[in-house]
Structure formats: C-alpha cells, structure tokens
Amino acid sequence: MLAVDTSDGLPVWLAERLRIRYPDAAVKLLRVFPGGAARVKQPRQEEFSLGDSDDDERGVQPLRDDAFLLGALRDRACREERLEQGSRYVLTLHAAGDVRYAIEIRASSPGFFGPRIAEIAALGQAYFERLAHLETDPLTRLRTRRVFQAHVESSLRTWLRSDRRYFLAVLDIDRFKRINDEFGHLYGDEILVHFANVMRKSFRASDLLYRIGGEEFVLIYGADSRLPDDTVLERFRAAVEAYTFPGVGRVTVSIGYTRITEVSTPAAVLFDRADQAVYYAKDHGRNQVRCWETLVEEGAIKSMVGDSRDVTIF
What we know:
Layout: H1 10-21, E1 26-32, E2 39-41, H2 45-50, E3 61-62, H3 67-75, E4 78-83, E5 86-95, E6 98-107, H4 117-135, E7 143-144, H5 145-160, E8 165-173, H6 176-183, H7 185-202, E9 208-213, E10 216-223, H8 231-242, E11 253-260, H9 267-283, E12 289-291, H10 292-298
Parallel strand pairs: 7-9, 11-12
Antiparallel strand pairs: 1-2, 1-6, 2-3, 4-5, 5-6, 8-10, 8-11, 9-10
C-alpha cells in the first residue's frame, strides 16, 4: 500500500489497490483537466509513484467519441459497460464538486464486474473517507486550507458565468488569544465549534466554508445583485454578536471581503485582499465588516501593485 499524505495522492493509492485486488483486469488512472470533463489524460509513470498534481496539459487528448466515459465524468457517476470482448467499469473520483480523476477497469470476461461491484464500491468509499479526513477540519468539520486554493481556482469559471455576484471573505474571531488565556484552550476549542455551527446556519449549503487555521475562517458565497455587497456578512456578524457562547458569553468577529470579478485572479490574491481588509477592521475597532475595494477607493489601504501572481497563502 502506498503512503498517502495529500489528497492528490489518494487516486494513486486507490488505483494501486485495485491493481493488486484484480490482477487479471487492466486498471488505468485518468486525470480530468479543468475546462470540462471531455479532456482526459493518461498520467505519466512518475505520477503514479509521486501523485504529482500539476496541471500541465501537454499531451491532453480531447474526449469526443467515448460517450460512455464522457457521460460518467459529466454525471460524476460509476458505471459498467458491456463490450464486444469483455466489459469495463468507470469509477469517477470527485471532491469539492469537481471530478479530478477517473479509474477505468477493463476485463476480458463479460460477467467480471457483477460479483465485484460491491468490492469496488467499498474501495471507493475508503477513498472518500481518507479524502474527508485530509480535507475536513476534525474540530469544526469545515473544509481545510489544504483544498482552498485548488477548489477556488477550479470553480471560478463556473461561478462567473452565472448571474450572481461572488465574494471571498476572511472571518477572524476578535480577541481569541485573550479568550484562550482567560478561559483555557478547551473553551477556545468550544468557541471554534460553535462559531462554525453559526456559519453553517447563517449561509446556504452552496456557500463554501473553510477553517484556514486558528481562529481564522474563509467564506466564498454568492449574493443577489439587488442587495448591498455587505448584507450577507453584516447579518452573520450580528448573529455572532447575539450568540451566547457557552462559558464565555459574548464573542465578536471582524470580517474583510473582496469581490470575485475575474477568472484570472488567483485564489491567493483574493485571500490576501480580504485579509488586508480584515486587518483593517481589527485595527479600527473590531466587530465590523470591511470591503477591500472600498478601502482602496477611499485611500485607506494601498492596492498591491499588479497583484503578484506568485503570492502563496501558506
């Protein structure tokens, strides 16, 4: 069994498990590239050993004639197909809403998969359990910083084609260190759990919630164009202020946000803009919502020259 320490290494682990389990079948791991489920690529040999996750598209072949595979990718489904000589099974591997990989298993026997479907499904479930462990914060059950950047950048095109406006916000619990110092880390952890619960209750299921680390959270959400930009965030800020946190009482949150307007803007740049706005909020009284674009227009903060594409979040 391969050691797995990143979410992109998990498909490699699963493909190897299937090869060992079914030595008489041909197991092929396919990478699905951004821009639609119709473009797949057989990974290079080193990707099987390293779990390489770069998005180099050299050698990618458009998928036009394989309606079965194309349909499985588009539907994020697992399907069996009978062939003239044998059969094949496609197991799609998706996370955070995107199909990232697919495993194709070909067998010479038409009845090969019948009694083995449950076994393959169980291995697929093991994959998702490992993925959930890596991509979900164990304390708050929100998404982790591990998946933030890849998820945002793979979703931007879809978001910006819709009629809604989209925003990225950084939410930082005020005076959290003092809470830990006065009440202890157990109470601090309890606040993080309750704060995450308020987030889940305040936002839609389609909104993306992350715990980036410590007391810092990220929200990506869409809003009705008829409402002021900060309406959703102000409602959440007020909900946190009104909430009674066990053993501690009143807690407030500072929020900074930025508008997502261009597909080409990297997730790291969006995060940095919202982070500047949240630091401004903390330096000017806390318990408030601040917009990066508005602060730049007012001259309160300076825009990064060119918004460098080499920014790294963590």
